[in-house]
Each structure stands twice: as C-alpha cells, then as structure tokens.
UniProtKB/TrEMBL annotation, chain B:
Protein name according to UniProt: ATP-binding protein
CDD domains listed in its UniProt record: ABC_DR_subfamily_A
Gene3D superfamilies, A to Z: P-loop containing nucleotide triphosphate hydrolases (3.40.50.300)
InterPro entries: AAA+_ATPase (IPR003593), ABC_transporter-like_ATP-bd (IPR003439), ABC_transporter-like_CS (IPR017871), ABC_Transporter_VariousFunc (IPR051782), P-loop_NTPase (IPR027417)
Superkingdom to which the source organism belongs: Bacteria
Amino acid sequence: MKLKHFFNLEWKQYFRSAYWQKSMALNILLALFALYFIVTFLALGIALYPILKDAFPDQDPLIIVNSYLFYWFLADVVMRFFFQKLPVMTVKPLLTLPVKRRKVVHYVLGKSVFSFFNFLPLFAIVPFGIMLIINDYPLVSVVIWMFTIFVITLIINFLNFIIESFSSETELSFLPIIALAGGLFAINYFNLISFTSLVATAVNSIYETHVFIIIPILILIGLYLLNFKLLRGKLYLDSSLQSKVKEVKASNLDWTRKFGEAAPFMQLDLKLIWRNKRPRSSVFILVIGLLYGLFFYPNPTYQDQPWMFAFVGIFVTGIFLINFGQFIPAWDSGYYKMLMSQNIQYKQYLKSKFTLMAVSVIIMFVLSIPYVYFGWNILLAHLAAAIYNIGINTHVVLFAGSFNRKKIDLNQRAAFNYQGTGAVQWLVGLPLMALPLAIFGASYYFFSFEMGCLVLAILGLIGIVFHQKLMNIITEKYLDSKYQMIQAFSQDN
Amino acid sequence: MINASNLSKKYGSNSVLDIKNLEIPKGQSFGLVGNNGAGKTTFFSLLLDLIKPTTGQIKSKDILVSESEDWKPFTAAFIDETFLIGYLTPEEYFYFIAELRGQNKADVDGLLSQFEDFFHGEILNQKKYLRDLSKGNQKKVGIVAALIGNPEVIILDEPFANLDPTTQIRLKSIIKDLAETQGVTVLISSHDLLHVTDVCERIVVLEKGEVIKDLATSTETLKELEAHFAGNQVV
C-alpha cells in the first residue's frame, strides 16, 4: 500500500461525501473564514513590530512578544480543541488488507501536521520575523526564533491529539480542557507560577543560545512517539474503532412534568443535549456567551457607545437560542420518521423546544445581571434584549427550522464532523442579531437609549402575547413540509 | 381495516409502486414478499404517511392516512433502526413511546415482563444506550416498542433480518399470537419465504411495485413462492 493510495482514498472520501456536494456555499464560507484569518494574521505579523515600537519605544518588541507567547499558546490549545478535527481515517476496511499498521498511524499523524491550524501562525510569525530582520536583528537568531515557534505549534498539535483522545473518553468532554486551560491561566494570573515569564525565558534563551532549540524538538519527537504508541494501540477493532460503550447515568427528570403535555419531549430534549457531544457543546458555549460581555463592558471605548449594549444583550441572553435553535428540528433528524408515525402533536413537540429556549434566555439574563456593575444601562438593555429574544427570536428560529433540510448525525464521531461545530453556525445567527440591532440602533439614533430598549421590549411583548397564534402558524408550516423533511433527513450525508 | 386503492408512487418517470386495489381485513396477518426494489418499504411508508402517494389513497379504518392523523393512535410500526433514538436506553425509549401512546410506566413494565424470553437478558437493565446495542438487539427493542399501547395495526419491515435463530422462532410465535388471539392486523415484509409462510395467513408478492400474486397460505404456498422466485432468477 503506497502513500498515493491513502491520498486517493481520502480525496474520494472528501469530494464524494454528499455533504461536500450539497453545500458548496458552506465550503465557500469556510474558505472565506480561513482567508479572513490568514489576512488578519498577516496584518498582525506585519503591523506588530511598528505598533509595539511605537507604543513602547524603550522596550524590545521581540521581548514583549515573547512575554505574551504563553497566552498565545494557551489560546491555541483551546481553539484547537474546539475547532480542529482530528484526522481520523476510515481505517476499518484497511485492517484486513496487507497494510502495515505503523504505516497507517504514521500517515494519520503526518496528515495532522498539514492542518490549517499549524499554518495559520506562520502567517503572523514569518512577517514579524522579516520585520525583525529588516530592523537589524541577527538573521540566524530570528530564523531560530521563528523555527522555535513553529515547533511549539506542532507540539500543541500533537498535544491536542492526546488531550482529545483522552477527553473523548470522559463524559464531560470539554471539562478537562477548560480545567487545564483555566487552571494554567489562574496559576499564572495569580503569580503562583509565572508561566508567562517561564515561556518568555525559555524562548529568549533559545533565541540567544541556539543549541537550546534541541529541547522543543526533543519534546516534539517525544510527543509524536507517544501519539504513535497511543494510536497504534487503538488500531484494533475492539478498542477505539468500535464506538465506545458508555455506562448510562440516568437522572431523574420528573420535574419536567410541570410542563404538562410537552413533558416527554422536554425530557427527550434534555437527554439529547446532555448525552450527545454536539448539542452538549452548545451548553458549553453558554459560558463563552456569558463572558462575552467582559470583552466590551470593561473597555472604556465602548462605554459611550450604548448601542453596543443591546447587541451584547441579544448575544448573551440568546446564545443558546441561536446555537441550539438553528438546528431544530435537525437534532431529531435521526429518528424523525419515527416521530412522524407516532401519536404526537406537532405543537407539543415544538412547544418543548420553545420552552427550552425561552428558559435558557431567562437563565442567561439572570446570570448576566452582575454586569450591572458596569452600569444600570446594561441591565436595562439586557432585559429588553431578553424579552425580544423570548418574544421574537424564538419564533423566528422555530419558523426557520421548518426550512431545515440537513440531517445531523448525532452518533457521528470525530471524523469529518463539519456539521455546525465551526464558525459557520454563527453566520446563521446573524439575522437573529442584526435585526434587533437595527431596530435598536434606529430608535437610539432618532430618540434615545431608553426608547431603543422600550421598542425592543414592546416588540418582544407583542411576540409573547401572540405566542399561541404564532405557534399555530409555525406548526402549520412544519406540517406543510413534513414529507420534504422526512425525505431529507433520511438521506445520509 | 386497511384499504389501498389506485395507489401509486412515482419518482420522476420511474414507478416504484402501483397497486390497483388491496384490502386487508382486521386481524389478518399479512405478509409482503418481493425482491429488492419491489416496493415493500414504499408501501409501508405510504401507509404511515411518511411519503406522499402520487395517485390514489390508503384508508386505515376508514381514515384517509394522508389527510387525518387519527390513524396514529391505533397504528404502530418498526421500519428500520432510524425509528430508534440512539441516545436513550431501551427502558427510556419504551417509556417515551409509551408516553406518546398514553400509557404509564406500569403498563409498560407489565408488557415488557412478557418479553423477558424474547430479550434474552440482553436488553433491560444493561445501562447501555440504544446506539451501543448490536443490530439484532436494536431490532428487538424496535419490535417490542411497536407493541406498546395495544395498537390495532402493527407494521414490521423485515422483522426477521439480523435476528438470531432463537429469537426468530420466538418472534414468530409473538406475531402469530397477536393476529390469532388478539385480533391485531399485522403487516410484515420479509425476504425469508419460510418465515413469512410460517407466520402469515395471507401473502402478497410484489414485483416492480405491482401485486402479482395474492395467496392464502396453505401447505403448498412455500413451494409455489420458491418456484416463483427461482423462476425470476433465471429470466
């Protein structure tokens, strides 16, 4: 079995997947995103030196950069965990063929080196390095520096492999990484151990004493070998290739009875969210969403731009709604046929989803109350945004769901799992955020901040008042597209 | 009980089902046989209103399935594993279905206790999700779930495939019991002529979407069917 066979197989797997063929638009979007990041990193790489020189004329820009490398690496680890897909090959058919197992493993590991995530930093590092050389830094040292960063990037790449393979075996897949990253960050922040200066010192000494480059290289080789060992052990049918069997931890969901006839669906939805990796990640995103305000509010530049408050409010209170809601009813696509042949009322099915989203908005609003620390305006804007989310956006998202034709395979594991875990899903959420922002912006511009909040809140209240009517319309729409949905959901990706 | 008239389904110009008239009386065990692509699953899907007929209609207990949903309370089906919810345990799945069909936990437990034999200790209390069960065990869950709530019409597509011999035999007695003593209309499809002749009192052979044989099962039926399908292969 030659390398070209591997390539050939992968090529076909990729381009013949129905997903690729069906959603050209999504691929173009992904490409645009990649392009965007490349350009951003390029700009960063080029501009960083002059900016730092300008801001801190009496400090060495390279030293400043080195002192922040820890955060860069930490961010890299976290980003990769959530966005980088492990290059899993369909190895099962290969196992009985005369292919050496080690060759398969080497190939899989080697392939991961060519991930976009490994090249992205280069777009910043190389221009920055060139800027350094132009500014009379020693050529060899700078090249060594660039090489060091790249080697560390690769170390992170293989580290991520290990982290992911371990965390995929635990029930709360993202907790370890969050604990790890958060722990490191906290230790560093409270100066228990200053990783920032550790990393800075390490990189600086490699920059000065070139021989030290051997250390990261050795670490890289070590990690590669460790990965090799781990993966090789998994290349047996009885271990990782077979989907893992997890012990069930059932929880008591009897409290959902309060929701009356929608209760069975509520229970189903909660289990759906908790027991499947993909919807579970939308819960995790709640945390990100909650912290999102911290990007804006402490920053004085945004303090006198109150229109931002409504945007953040919609985002913070509606993050679950946007994330989870946009895949209704595709979450249930795997067994949609069954649901449709059962004795169910569409209305209750939809009501469960609505309740879930509305409750999430309320919870997020309550959790975001501490932002009042940054001003009462913020609380007001969040409240208005929450009402708008409950009254309008929930219905919009449900209505839009009736156009949903893309199956989600909940059982799908890491391989080629593009489905909505990437940046793309945020795009779908744009209208949900852009519309209220436009409404708020207009009333803020022509009247006042309070007026803007009032308009949003009133719109939301109108939505809540007409909830039953709106749900009837939405139900009608779902019934209309029943056959198309069944057909689309029964197609494999 | 079930009446199909002028029923046809076309994809483009390709006709996959064309049934002039088919009447299935209450309490009949009805078998549908045919080669791949003969239209068996299409017929069941039409009966469950999962696809829209190109022409004609199906009535179940005089209810037009494509217009009213009132047939759902007395109809249950297991077509394939997409009828299962992978992230539930078998028990949770049974209770969920039961809830949709207006049954309580005790009803389900009572029903399940009758199937301990059938489950062979591999389904209940295993603390496993349905997605982690073997194909055969998934099928058992789906079939039993279709019996929850005393349905009057039960539709099983290929119920014998993927099951081990012991389970096949047990399933046969379950199906027979349903039709003979409980008056349930059972519709099954199968590739296994032996099983289907064992279980069903009436067998309809589909070919390219059309009914070409409609037999009341007798001792001769198996031979006749075998001759028919052997002949098909030669042509």
